Amino acid sequence: MTGAPPTTGVHHFSPTVSDVEASAAWYTRVFDLDRLPGEARHHGDEDGGYAILLLDRRTGLLIGLHHHDGHHGGAFDEQRAGLDHIAWGVRKRSDLDAWARWLDEIGVPHSGVIDKAARKYSAIVFRDPDGIQLELFHRNG
């Protein structure tokens, strides 16, 4: 075999959150997601917590917001080992302008559109209720 077998892309994103219901409401509102019924117990730790599942019907991306009974607390920090951020791609640069207007409309603080001509990308940076950095990203050219 030469090279890794193919994938179909990112299937799901599963952050641990401090308040699963507040985060579910936030992600649902910001990304226009559908909440799936029930709770998903943690594989291998069925008694230690659960996830609420949210589906983006346009792309098929699943977001599993995890509650752990043994959550240690503390704020998210991308400078520790683990997740730095996750980015959603958009098709056109003008889609970022539409996202900036949407985030303003629903009261989500954000960076505004950042254009990095030398690096050939544009992005918007914002954070979820736990401070997890999220981006909307467009590759220019």
Count of distinct structural domains: 2
The structural class is alpha+beta
The count of helical stretches stands at 2
CATH class of the largest domain: Alpha Beta
CATH arch. level architecture of the largest domain: Roll
Order of helices and strands: EHEEEEEHEEE
Domain VOC: 9-139
Protein name: VOC family protein
Organism: Pseudonocardia abyssalis
Describe the structure.
It comes from Pseudonocardia abyssalis. By secondary structure, the protein is an alpha+beta fold. It folds into 2 domains: 10-69, 2,3-Dihydroxybiphenyl 1,2-Dioxygenase, domain 1 (Roll), CATH 3.10.180.10; 85-141, 2,3-Dihydroxybiphenyl 1,2-Dioxygenase, domain 1, CATH 3.10.180. The chain is 18% helix and 33% strand. It contains 2 helices and 9 strands; from the N terminus they run E-H-E-E-E-E-E-H-E-E-E. The longest helix has 13 residues, at 93-105. The chain starts with 11 loop residues before the first strand and ends with a strand.
Please give a handful of descriptors for the protein shown.
four-stranded mixed beta sheet, globular, Glyas_Fos-R_dOase_dom, VOC_core, 2,3-Dihydroxybiphenyl 1,2-Dioxygenase, domain 1, 141 residues, single chain, 18% helix, VOC family protein, alpha+beta
Secondary-structure topology with pairs:
Elements: E1 12-13, H1 20-31, E2 34-35, E3 40-42, E4 45-55, E5 62-68, E6 86-89, H2 93-105, E7 114-116, E8 121-127, E9 133-139
Parallel strand pairs: 1-5, 6-9
Antiparallel strand pairs: 2-4, 3-4, 4-5, 7-8, 8-9
